[in-house]
């Protein structure tokens, strides 16, 4: 799941406490991502138990204790594994794909091409599906407009992916 990846990446940059992790993710992704406490803290607890991060208590006078999280060597390996764990299901979700593309400097050329081609195949299938749906809505102007817009988005992303593939191979 991409939230695991985002949390680990924030800790990899520098040791942080939970609120800092949340704010940094939201700052980087803006409206695309809201990290709530019910997701963040159980994930941090799980990562601590797995040994991919460490947790150090920072005692504060007159305030609750603050815990600072730091990445371990196992955590750095987990980041690479999470980037590489890109499935056909992930290829259907633009945010999963975009986050991985933004982290391509962490993985091999072969893995980059695999991820790009998986998304490309998914988008090509989406275009075929949209074309079929367009045939069934000849009298529905607004539905056709939505489908037309979806097609233009998919085609634009395919052009961009082809360019990324050329850059990755070159």
From TrEMBL:
Residues 7-79 form the Transcription regulator PadR N-terminal domain. It comes from the Bacteria. PANTHER family: NEGATIVE TRANSCRIPTION REGULATOR PADR, TRANSCRIPTIONAL REGULATOR YQJI. This is PadR family transcriptional regulator. It comes from Paenibacillus mendelii.
